[in-house]
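Sequence, please.
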């Protein structure tokens, strides 16, 4: 059977490179007093001193050396994968922080030309809270105005009901049992005739007064011719006066007609006032509807502000957690745990 090759002969580059690089890097690191970066430390994780490797190979055999090399390669690959994952998470966290910084820098929380600082963000949130409180106060005022409008609307409805009852009473008073009598009272021709008769009565009264004065001036006897004529004329005048008295009774009818006309005009005024009141009531109803809409809009805005505040708080909390993790993560990595044992073995050799 062919003899198996020596591990150093089977992997000439790996053994030489691992031993040489590791010893050179370690000596340079110790001389300069600086620690190696995390990447270099991982790259040298599977490297041991050549003498120690030869001793272990001689003690364990070629199979154990190959298994050790494979395990070291696997651990190196795992470390590289972990490093890549951490770098990806770091990049994503940096991108997230950059996004938030840009968002706050472009938003209203940061003044023009300033940088997004936590104090400015807190001030902006406090301003949002104060605006929310002012909106709540406006909402309370709107509710009070709404209650006042409702009370005013109830009073207006009561006034409308009172006016309606007054109109019904006036209609009952104006309603007459005879439609012909109403037409007769409201006829303009009859009114004109009444005024003519009134003027005629005034003229007749003047004539009667003159005749009375003449009678008093002239002494006469009832049996005389002039006396009989005067008596006949007085009778005719008294008859005319009676007729005039009947006509004057019609003046009351005319007065009633004028009162009815005035009541109609008053009724028309009440109707106009009622129409104006109904229009005012419609305006109040529209104002109440607008106030309801304003209240609903303010409630929606308050809910949106609450949602934005909660969202900003959650995002700030996540950002603080990311920053805390970043600050708690060590920036430099300590020496590899196996270096101490390697140094002791080297000193013993």
């Amino acid at each position: 059977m062919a003899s198996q090759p020596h591990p150093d002969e089977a992997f000439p580059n790996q053994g030489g490179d691992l031993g040489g690089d590791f010893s050179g890097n370690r000596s340079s690191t110790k001389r300069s007093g600086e620690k190696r970066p995390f990447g270099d430390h991982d790259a040298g994780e599977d490297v041991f001193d050549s003498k120690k490797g030869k001793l272990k190979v001689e003690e364990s055999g070629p199979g154990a050396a190959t298994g050790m090399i494979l395990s070291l390669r696997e651990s190196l690959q795992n470390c590289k994968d972990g490093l890549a994952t951490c770098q990806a998470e770091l990049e994503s966290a940096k991108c997230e922080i950059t996004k938030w910084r840009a968002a706050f820098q472009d938003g209203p929380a940061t003044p023009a030309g300033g940088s997004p600082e936590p104090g400015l963000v807190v001030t902006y949130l406090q301003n949002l809270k104060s605006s929310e409180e002012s909106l709540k106060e406006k909402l309370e005022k709107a509710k009070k105005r709404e209650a006042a409008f409702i009370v005013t609307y109830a009073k207006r409805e009561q006034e409308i009901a009172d006016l309606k009852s007054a109109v019904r009473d006036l209609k009952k008073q104006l309603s007459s049992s005879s439609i012909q009598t109403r037409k007769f009272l409201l006829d303009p021709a009859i009114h004109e005739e009444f005024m003519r008769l009134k003027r005629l009565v005034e003229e007749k009264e003047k004539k009667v007064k003159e005749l009375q004065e003449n009678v008093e001036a002239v002494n006469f006897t009832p049996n005389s011719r002039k006396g009989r004529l005067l008596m006949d004329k007085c009778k005719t005048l008294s008859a005319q006066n009676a007729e005039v008295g009947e006509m004057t009774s019609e003046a009351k009818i005319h007065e009633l007609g004028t009162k009815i006309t005035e009541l109609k005009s008053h009724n028309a005024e009440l109707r106009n006032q009622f129409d104006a009141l109904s229009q005012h009531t419609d305006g109040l109803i529209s104002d109440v509807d607008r106030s309801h809409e304003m209240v609903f809009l303010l409630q929606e805005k308050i809910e949106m502000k609450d949602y934005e505040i909660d969202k900003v708080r959650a995002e700030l909390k996540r950002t603080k957690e990311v920053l805390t993790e970043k600050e708690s993560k060590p920036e430099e990595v300590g020496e590899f745990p196996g270096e101490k044992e390697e140094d002791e073995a080297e000193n013993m050799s």
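Confidence is low (pLDDT under 50) at residues 1-59, 332-338.
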